Amino acid sequence: MNPRCEDWLRGKLERLQGSESYNAEKTNKEIADKYGLAVTDIVKLNYNENLYIPREKIIPLLKEVAEEVDFRIYPQNEEALLKEKIGEYLQVPQDSVTVGNSSDEVMERVIRIFLKKGDAAVTFTPTFSVFKYCVLYEEAEYVQVPLCDDFNIDMEAMHSAFTSNARLLYLCSPNNPTSNQLKPREIEALIEEFPGIVLVDEAYGEYADYSVVPLIKKYENLIVLRTFSKAFSLAGLRLGYALANPTLAKALDKTPAPYPVNAVSLSMGRKMLENIGLMRESVTALKLERGKLISRLNEIKGVEAFDSKANFVLFNTAKPYAGVYEAALSRGLVIKRLGKLVRYENCLRTTVGLPEMNAKLLKTLSEYMED
Ligand SMILES: Cc1ncc(COP(=O)(O)O)c(C=O)c1O
Question: What is the pLDDT of residue 32?
Fold first, then answer.
């Protein structure tokens, strides 16, 4: 290799390898092998996926898509049809919709378009970590303002972070991992005052009390992120979207490489919207189970579970969180370890699983905490 190329390539690779990125959990098979369990024993409650729509109800829709889509050729009008359905679903014009290969990918696109080296991206902490990784990847400045102890925004501190180089504000609502929804008045005040683009992540919007989507008609600097990974149970298909005023949406749509999303995922998104009862029923069932899970967690000695507006529950334990995590994992239960969040020292997060999954978690926690 040319020595000049060698130096340049080494530098590039070192920078990439050194950059922080999302650390994916081990696969179910790896966990099962480590603890001498069967893969079928693994109960995965760490990624806020939604098992409330049974596979048997999704597979026939996928079969219909397989009949309808000719995936030997590039996507045709699948994206336009999906945009039309999303528009109807959320009561927005279809030219306000941008679709992407997951909401993470749309987020990355927003960051690439609106942030350059030297610009700052502002958010609160704790929040969804992928935003931070994408900002740092672009070599922009990442500014985080701690949340208050009740998980609400410290509005004064937030305003002080609105410096002249602040170009992007990320507000996750309902917030992962705190599971609360931000106050609508505060979100609106921040949109009005922020000197750049405000990105509101509503990945868990279907489980929440309200949405800021209608505000895209009022504010030209607002982008709302949504996904098919959570309430619509399509995490593996990687389909997300953003809503914004048409001028902004058009800019987001302008990807240099064509066809960012495959025809099968686009069509499956449309099918899920055409069969919206599946999502609605699953959200109702999950919310019912969420309430039960929170009360039962709170009955366990040394566990404090917080209210949730999402499909997961955050809880704090009197025992060190690493031990709780390990005790669950060794029984095949994969939850998310978080550690100290605001004034709570030992936080963990669990997806609201199917009732039998939650029962297994509750039993494990009771045994471990009361031991
Ligand atoms: C707040 C938030 N946004 C986005 C995502 C990822 O969504 P997607 O699967 O569309 O990339 C997650 C996943 O956990 C999330 O918690």
Answer: 92
Count the helix, strand and coil residues of the chain and give each as a percent rounded to the nearest 5. 45, 20, 35
Beta pairing class for 240-244 and 222-227: antiparallel
Determine which residue's CA is closest to atom 12 belonging to ligand 1: 203
pLDDT tens per residue across span 164-209: 999 999 999 999 999 999 999 999 999 999 999 999 999 999 999 9
Q: Reduce the DSSP state of residue 162 to 3 states and report it.
A: coil
Give SS3 for 93. coil
Q: Which band of pLDDT confidence, cut at 50, 70 and 90, is reported for residue 118?
A: very high
**pLDDT-above-90 percentage for the chain:** 92
| Domain spans in the chain, listed from the N-terminal domain onward | 15-53+278-370, 70-275
The CATH classification number of 70-275 equals 3.40.640.10
Return the beta strands (E) in the chain as ranges.
43-44, 97-100, 120-125, 141-146, 166-172, 197-201, 222-227, 240-244, 303-305, 312-317, 333-334, 336-341, 344-351
pLDDT tens, position by position, 261-282 = 999 999 999 999 999 999 999 9
CA of 208 to the centre of ligand 1 (A): 15
Q: What is the CATH class of 15-53+278-370?
A: alpha beta
- Ligand 1 atom with the shortest distance to the CA of 239: 10
- Residues flanking ligand 1, CB < 6 Å: 48, 102-104, 128, 172, 176, 201, 203, 227, 229, 235, 240
**Predicted TM-score of the model (pTM):** 0.96
Domains 15-53+278-370 and 70-275 share a fold: no
- Token couple for 93: 């014009």
CB-CB contact of 87 with 269 (8 Å): no
- How far apart are the two ends of the chain, measured CA to CA in Å? 61
Please tell me what DSSP assigns to residue 13: H
173 CA distance to ligand 1 middle (Å): 11
